[in-house]
Amino acid sequence: MAKIDAFFKLMHEQGASDLHLVTGQPPALRIRGEMERVKYKILDQDELRSMLYEIAPEDKVKTFEETGDVDFGYEIPGLARYRANFFIQKYGVAAVFREIPSEILTIEQLGLPPVIGKLASLPRGLILVTGPTGSGKSTTLAAVIDVANRTRKDHIITIEDPIEFVHQSQGCIVNHREVGLHTRTFKSALRGALREDPDIILVGEMRDLETTSLAIEAASTGHLVFGTMHTPSAPKTVDRIIEIFPSTEQAQIRSTLSDGLRAVVAQVLFKRIDKKGRCAALEILIATPAVRNLIRESKTHQIPSMIQTGKRYGMQLLDDAIMDLYNKGMISGDDAYLKANDKSIFRPLLKTPPTDFTEA
Fold this sequence. Notes:
Rossmann fold, alpha/beta, Beta-Lactamase, 25% strand, 6-stranded antiparallel β-sheet, 2 domains
């Protein structure tokens, strides 16, 4: 057993999402969204480096020493998988580990709206799950892929950096590919996937022009493509995709995206106040013909109105979802205000509303 495994077991017992190991500081866990120190000695450079190198593949150690940071996956059988990131900071080496649960929770267990599960049955198109780092995007996508795996008879390819949730083939054949281990880049894996008879493709992150372009192309040529982006809302996601492309290509990509897009799910994670745990608030955009027309005509600023009037399709605004969680007593007014898009709606919930410079 590696020395660091003791921290992973503590992390698992405490229900922490992340473990932080930093030279010159004691270890820390992120529990229910907040950092908490572990009662342990201050880590020195040599001890921490030795601890980290014990679990890192040789090629990842080499990359880390050459570049100053590296990502990879680590697994403790019977416990969990971990997404690892090593980096160099002012005082020495540091690392952050995100726990990827071995059990894939269902749509129902996560408390997600039923329309999220229905996305798994779409024959083709692009579905994006967006939100800040640590907002549960991978967990939501895993639940959707699990529905597809259990209910369809297709070929699913996932392209991730690193592999997070592992799906055992059920009705579908599932192939997991890790960037840096099984393929060089997202774009090369995605290009290759189009020749591997896929029905469903999961792209861990659409982070550059070529990957985004290939994902849209795959969605437009008969594949169901899932991807993630770090955008805070559905309209901003559409804008972000278009802005990636050169101005000379934006009119064409608007047309292609409007045809291929099926849904955007933007989510934010909250600490629960009614019991231990966290819950997600979701903004859901379904690409109806009217929504596609807005994208095509560069009128994305009208999308929130379309979401508001599209409840019968399962659409909902993020602020409405946040208010629903607040009214159910699941989250605090302060947290709701902090993470809302339109803060003016939530100011009346606060005993002492702050002076918000973002509204100036």
